[in-house]
Amino acid sequence: MALLNFRRDTAIPTNGVVTAFLDDFSIEVMPRTASKIDDFRPLLPKGTRVYIAHIEGTPIEEMVATAKRLREEGFEPMPHFPARIIKDEATLNDWVTRYKGEAGVHQALLLGGGVKHPAGDFDNSMQLIESRAFNGFSRLHIAGHPEGNRDIDADGGDRVVMEALRWKQAYSERTDADMAIVTQFAFEAKPIIAWADHLAANGIHMPIHIGVAGPAKLQTLLKFAIACGVGPSLRVLQKRAKDVTKLLMPFEPTELVAELAAHKAANPNFGIEAVHFFPLGGITSNATWIADHTKG
User: Fold this and answer.
1) What keyword terms does UniProt attach to this protein (predicted)?
2) Global pTM?
3) Which residue, 195, 215, 263, 273, is the most exposed by fewest CB within 10 angstroms?
């Protein structure tokens, strides 16, 4: 198993600590990737939360059908609602009604979305929350960016992001829905830990579900990382890319997960509550990695 070779401030924990950290993990699919899996039941524990990414141009019928299929196979579907691809309130209410009626959906990830120009009335997740379309949902998640988001704070700071998170924190305190922050993936533990501590210091106490890229070829991870705006932790991949002996070996999140697990074990009140996997190298390989690291 390929591991990065860089100095650690905490010892890599035993498998039991990693297993505890991976408890209640979630994973992300798209309709087109889900369609390539004959049956999710041999791959994932029953009841696993499966996010369904809504990429611009994906018909709502495909999204709902994927959610329905996951529900029937015993999983908890959590579709994305990207504000900037939703035309208007009527469209939003139609989507919610379809998900609830056809797939029993009661959990959702609300986010601005990756497109620059809104397709209609919505620009951000706060507007989705204010629409009241999700009243009665048991769980609402929002997006987080451990290494910043220049689409929101163009100067590289976090003023706008923090204002939005404070608004959502206040909302979480007055709603019955469980709320959490699910993040973009990163590749280095220290910036993630610093970011989580920064949120806590600023009164943001919603649980964090940290994004982790599943096993994949280095070239694949570099492509997605650059496209998704991954920040300083990209250097972990760049450093590995310089070692020609490792270029063809799959990159695995073993060391990142182990360091975060060690920090959580040493600091039980640390804000990360769960791990959310982006299966960039395929759902099957990601599920296999999880199974290998959660064995008793």
Assistant:
1) Oxidoreductase
2) 0.89
3) 273
